[in-house]
Description:
The structure is a single chain. By secondary structure, the chain is α/β, with parallel strands linked by helices. It has two domains: 4-106 and 315-326, no CATH class; 117-310, Rossmann fold. 47% of the residues lie in helices and 18% in strands. Strands 8-7-6-9-10-11 form a six-stranded parallel sheet, sandwiched between helices. Strands 2-1-3-4-5 form a five-stranded mixed sheet. A hairpin with a 4-residue loop joins β1 (4-10) and β2. α1 (24-36) packs parallel to α3.
Amino acid sequence: MDVSTGFIFNFSDQAKRHEQNPPSIPTLAIAQYMCLFRNTRLIIDWHNFGYSILALKLGDAHPIVKISKIYEQFCARSAAAHFTVTNAMAKVLKNSFGVNALPLHDRPPKHFQPLSQNQRSSFLSRLPETAEYAKELQAGTRKLIVSATSWTPDEDFSLLLNALVIYSTATTSNPALPKILAIITGKGPQKDHYLSQIARLNEEGKLSNIDIKTAWLSMEDYASLLGAADLGISLHTSSSGVDLPMKVVDMFGTGLPVLGWSKFEAWPELVTEDVNGKGFGSVEELSDLLAKVFGSDEKLARLREGALLECERRWDEEWDPVAGRLLGLVG
């Protein structure tokens, strides 16, 4: 996960350098050290806080977590300007770090675009993970959901897995509910653990009418997969409470509506409830949403319409009035 992004600007010749820094230690300190010997100023683009990510493993009270927070506060006060991925994060920088920041919300890259019906049909028939289900997916008797995960503790995949078990039970009492193909993309340390759970649930017959596939795709195929899906699922729980999952931004870029974990402060800045997605806070809520949305073509179509409107907002609309103006690149 990106903790922050540093922009080092030489205002004498407008040369610039862009650095990603997971983790913020020691990159922020190195960037500031460089600024001492050059005619440069440092701008930090905050996407999360390094200390909050450390706290996931060590706990809030751990000395290293406290030191990391002090370090980031110190580095923040030495920078010339700040961008944040949410308004909520800008408030944290103001109240806890003592610096002012300009909110600059993420937007999807250009290659994340909606698919036409012909493009969707061709892609579903071509991709190995969807090919055998292509006819059902095109007919609507099976729905495609997609979730991108790092298979780490801050994204609890058991939420989705248990919700699918409940949905599977619901399909036996309500045959009108469509089958589901769930494709999970990404790599990470807990992947094998959850693959074992999926195999066990299949052996026990608890995933009838549900098929779960994992995939590691090229960026182009991942963008097409989102464009071909019926619903995106976000399990991002936010270590700081004020960051946002880029995966949801990418989903909106293809016009894909989202069901996501919503129990953190910044969620409403990204998803508008009942317009382009829905939030959940438990397994039961997620399974209920799957049944309601897939049980009503009207509800799914309404969310799709809202997501398609959201996909029209691209980087120029966010960048130019905020970063572009600060850097003197636009009038």
